[in-house]
Design goal:
The complex is a heterodimer of chains A (264) and B (300). Chain A has 264 residues and is mostly helical. Chain A has one domain. Chain A has a two-stranded antiparallel ribbon. In chain A, a hairpin with a 2-residue loop joins strand 1 and strand 2. In chain A, helix 2 packs antiparallel against helix 4 and helix 4 packs across helix 6. Chain A is globular, with a radius of gyration of 20 Å. Chain B is 35% helix and 27% strand. In chain B, helix 3 packs across helix 4 and helix 8 packs across helix 10. Chain B folds into 2 domains: 157 residues, P-loop containing nucleotide triphosphate hydrolases (Rossmann fold), CATH 3.40.50; 53 residues. By secondary structure, chain B is α/β, with parallel strands linked by helices. The two termini of chain B are 36 Å apart. In chain B, the strands form 3 sheets. Chain B has a 6-stranded mixed sheet with strand order 6-7-8-3-9-10, with helices on both faces. The chains are: A mainly alpha (264), B alpha/beta (300).
Chain lengths: 264, 300
């Protein structure tokens, strides 16, 4: 009962608030980790079977890289995208609109910036770890483990942070949950195809190639492939920079739009 | 009493949504240690007022202070020292009672070493010790409401906001919650409760403010409100509609305060009518009479 005026100073992005919100996510995760892990293993397996072995019988290599390692490393970005953008969209919308969880959290000493940041942090940490799954699956298909792969969770985290924030932003501006279909079909699907995942974007017409440069996923794919199959080169600084800028912009936009919807 | 000493102080607070004025120049002062009832019909602005106290709704005009903290700038400090029980159940249905209380203990910055004790204490308050590890989805409506209250009390707040605490609950569960709320006041927790149940306000509140059209139209102890707005006695006259209409006309002509009360007409302040009083059943005036006289609205 001794709070009142003497309450401790409260910081912006208070670690205690972030930890509180993330604890909730961790507790929930303990209930559904099996399903998440199952799909994160099965999905890249299917991609490798379909593209790696299917296409791989026609296409033996892209540049100097054999096709199976090419796809296994490319699919990391796909895994990160799906495990960040979708939770960003659906979890946010469901918890906010249907379960009113966010109303409960914001009545506690947590503000929207902390809430959004904690949710995005959690999603992107998870996405970073699960980003390793395609590489693990790729090993029995002939992918050689390399020390650079240890950087993949970090790349997945930064990419996932941007896409989780993008998902939150979409949830904040969507009128109904059905609106997500527009984003999934018109934004996410082309994004994941035109990212150099299954075929190099250098094959594309000039216009599309330019557009692909603005696709954060393309930069994630390039970075993962470099650290996993060769090594970090100067050009990777640009890829890293793009991913960081994308993450920061999406984060600020997500906080701004959700703030406007949650606090009236 | 100065604003420093008040648990809640609102001055000239307004909030509009487009054309609708939800709260209209509201002044509200809640002294510490009491149970304050905000009584009003649906749409009176009670829930908007409650949301403004946690800065989840921002006022257009006016000043709001909670526990000495100025909102919205210091709202987090204020929220640190108060608990909130919302009208709509927003429990995490996939978590157990213990998990929910644990998460909120952390959110309210209960030190790690004290969290387990805080959770156990909250479970005891809600009388849910036997259900600690049950998933919320499997709890009854009454248990969920008790858990909501316990969640709001996890950090021993100085102030508890209760928004329509017993709406939609059956009478027995309502009684349980009333004892729980009454117990809090005994412990010195300030309670601000919004309700549209007259009986709830009458039983629990030390001070009742009647809210209508986004502002407070009368305030006092339940007894003061009854005496001021409905007198001490009421005569209820039953009869066929034609007779009742005739009586209403007569009451209006004589300037008697009166209201339709279901199949009867109730004449308020009957103790001062002397010989002219109509024939009927005399009973003590109650808060419902005062409420209807004040708001012009029948209650549910």
């Amino acid at each position: 009962m001794s709070a009142g005026r003497t309450a401790r100073r409260i910081h912006r992005l208070d670690p205690a608030a972030l930890a509180g919100v993330m604890t909730r996510d961790v507790v929930l995760f303990r209930r559904y980790w099996k399903a998440t892990t199952f799909s994160s293993i099965v999905q890249p397996t299917i991609y490798l079977l379909a593209f790696g072995l299917g296409f791989g019988s026609l296409v033996h290599s892209v540049g100097h890289v054999r096709y199976v390692p090419y796809v296994a490393t490319g699919v990391v970005a796909t895994a990160v995208l799906f495990s960040s953008a979708f939770p960003g969209m659906f979890n946010t919308f469901i918890r906010w609109q249907f379960q009113r969880t966010y109303d409960a959290l914001l009545a506690a000493p947590v503000d929207v910036e902390e809430l959004v940041t904690a949710e995005i942090l959690w999603i992107s940490l998870r996405a970073g770890v699960y980003g390793l799954a395609p590489l693990l699956v790729g090993i029995p298909f002939g992918l050689h483990p390399a020390p650079g792969m240890l950087l993949v969770p970090l790349i997945g985290f930064v990419t996932g942070f941007g896409f989780a924030a993008f998902g939150v932003l979409i949830a904040a501006v969507a009128k109904t949950i059905d609106n997500f279909n527009y984003v999934t079909s018109a934004v996410l699907t082309p994004m994941f195809l035109v990212a150099g995942t299954f075929f190099p974007i250098s094959q594309l017409p000039h216009g599309l190639r330019t557009i692909a440069q603005f696709n954060p996923l393309y930069h994630c794919v390039a970075l993962v492939r470099d650290v996993s199959l060769s090594h970090f080169v100067a050009g990777d600084l640009l890829h890293t920079g793009v991913l960081i800028v994308f993450a920061v912009i999406m984060w600020r936009l997500a906080v701004w739009r959700l703030q406007a919807r949650l606090i009236d | 009493m100065s604003a420093e000493q008040l648990a809640i102080a609102l001055q000239g607070v307004s909030k509009r949504y487009g054309e609708i004025v939800a709260v209209d120049g509201l002044d509200l002062s809640v002294s510490p240690g009491i149970c304050f009832g905000l009584l009003g019909p649906n749409g009176a602005g009670k829930s908007t007022t409650m949301r403004m106290l946690t800065a989840q709704t921002l006022a257009d005009t006016g000043t709001i202070e909670v526990l000495g903290f100025r909102l919205p700038g210091e709202s987090k400090q204020a929220r640190m020292a108060m608990g909130v029980v919302p009208q709509l159940d927003n429990l995490d249905v996939e978590l157990t009672c213990r998990q929910i209380l644990g998460v909120f203990a952390q959110l309210y910055r209960v030190p790690r070493s004290e969290r387990k004790e805080a959770v156990d204490r909250a479970l005891a308050i809600a009388n849910l010790e036997g259900r600690a590890d049950t998933i919320v989805r499997e709890l009854s409506g009454g248990m969920r409401r008790r858990l909501l209250v316990a969640r709001g009390l996890i950090h021993r707040p100085q102030l508890l906001l209760l928004d329509e605490p017993t709406v939609g609950l059956d009478p027995q569960v309502r009684q349980e919650l009333w004892s729980l709320i009454d117990g809090l006041r005994t412990e010195g927790v300030t309670v601000l409760m919004s309700t549209h149940y007259i009986e709830e306000a009458e039983r629990l509140a030390d001070t009742v403010a009647v809210m209508s059209g986004g502002r407070i139209i009368a305030q006092g102890t339940p007894t003061e409100l009854v005496h001021a707005h409905a007198g001490r006695e009421v005569i209820e006259v039953y009869g066929p509609p034609a007779e009742l209409s005739e009586l209403e006309a007569r009451a209006a002509a004589n300037g008697w305060r009166h209201r339709r009360s279901g199949p009867a007409v109730a004449v308020l302040g009957a103790e001062s009518l002397n010989g002219e009083a109509p024939e009927g059943v005399r009973r003590p005036a109650n808060l419902e009479d005062a409420f209807v006289a004040l708001t012009g609205q029948e209650i549910e």
